[in-house]
Amino acid sequence: MKKVSFYTVGCKLNFAETSTIGEEFKKRGFEIVEFGEPSDVCVINTCSVTEYADRDCRRAVRKALKVSPNAFIIVTGCYAQLRPDEIAQIEGVDLILGSNEKFKIFDYVGDFQKNYHTQIFISPVTETNEFYIASSTPASDRTRAFLKVQDGCDYNCSYCTIPLARGGSRSPEIAVVVERAKTLAQLGYKEIVLSGVNVGDYGRKIGTNLFELVKELEKIDGIERIRISSIEPNLLSEEMIDYFVNSEKICNHFHIPLQSGSDEILRKMRRRYNTTLYRKRIEYIKEKDPEACIGADVIVGFPGETREHFETTYNFINDLPISYLHVFTYSERPNTDAVNLPDKVSMDERHRRSEMLRNLSLKKKNSFYRQMIGKVFDVLWESEVKDGMMFGFTKNYVKVKIKYEPSLVNKITPVKIVDVEDLVAVGEIVKD
């Protein structure tokens, strides 16, 4: 039996897509092995968001070939779509597939015999109109499944390469998503995470919306939690918030990209909201549900971001009841408008600001977790074990640990939060 391994960089969407590609290999008799183990084929699914795409790809190719010198190396994903000629210069790469080709690997290769000649199949993103449903699978050994419900983006943020790599926004019909979610429920998943490039834009071009989708997903037996990976503040209405926080299945966990707390920088980024709207959304969520978890993405060091702009961002975030941050250091991406903006911020200053916000994130997360002490939550336990402890998550995305009990894996149990250690809540099982 031939073996295949996978290496994935980037977002949860990439991981869901890799998992779906893996299912195609399994159907054709391949055994999936861990990346770094000997394999006949290695698929590298790349990302283009940061400046390290080239470095990550080269390292992955080298690692794969070190253990399997004759492995057939396939590189796909956003970086492959945008910079195929750069990847073709990496010794040992056999096949490069674009965003529209990644789900058709078997259309482009037959016996996977290495011939030391790189082939490239990349179609323009303007021709990328198909939607390929994707989700994580039991091979990922998780109790939460990431379900891709949207792809591409019609926004034109000045710093972002995703529309260039994935094309325009597109979504499957509700029935298609529901059918995949039912399959995941049958496989034993209790929680699905709705993923995409711009999840809040789901259904806009096919006459429906995210609101209608989640209402249908709630009806599925076996799916006990629905988590939304991320949603833009301008696409999150008060009506949706009201429904979400009162739903038995939808998690009270909102990840709402901010990017900057300065309206001037937001305009340069071409974001579709301002800080007034953002604050309104955050405060409304907390008014309706004080226990809701709210995460935010922030980019620091964008061209033209002065120290005053950064201080405005820092103070804006500090004043809001945000639970944690994902902090990104701005990196110049080819073919984006931001590359040509003046007043670049030095790399040392970018890293200094990133560190400040990451420290703020730790403080906010610790504060949020400590607010949960003494309260009881339902926890979905995962299979991860470390130092004799197992871990799980509440609906509001608090990570909890207890002493390992194998019978609890993929079970939901009531737990009282008694302490917080190293940004993990310590729980006690509540007995009947």
Automatic annotation (TrEMBL):
Record protein name field: Threonylcarbamoyladenosine tRNA methylthiotransferase MtaB
CDD domains on file: Radical_SAM
Record function comment: Catalyzes the methylthiolation of N6-threonylcarbamoyladenosine (t(6)A), leading to the formation of 2-methylthio-N6-threonylcarbamoyladenosine (ms(2)t(6)A) at position 37 in tRNAs that read codons beginning with adenine.
Organism whose genome encodes this protein: Candidatus Kryptonium thompsonii
Annotated NCBIfam families: MiaB-like-C, MiaB/RimO family radical SAM methylthiotransferase
PROSITE patterns: MTTASE_N, MTTASE_RADICAL, RADICAL_SAM, TRAM
Lineage summary: Bacteria, Pseudomonadati, Candidatus Kryptoniota, Candidatus Kryptonium
Any Pfam family matching the protein: Radical_SAM
UniProt domain MTTase N-terminal: residue ranges: 2-114
Reaction(s) the record says it catalyses: N(6)-L-threonylcarbamoyladenosine(37) in tRNA + (sulfur carrier)-SH + AH2 + 2 S-adenosyl-L-methionine = 2-methylsulfanyl-N(6)-L-threonylcarbamoyladenosine(37) in tRNA + (sulfur carrier)-H + 5'-deoxyadenosine + L-methionine + A + S-adenosyl-L-homocysteine + 2 H(+)
Cofactor(s) needed: [4Fe-4S] cluster
Residue span, Radical SAM core domain: 139-370
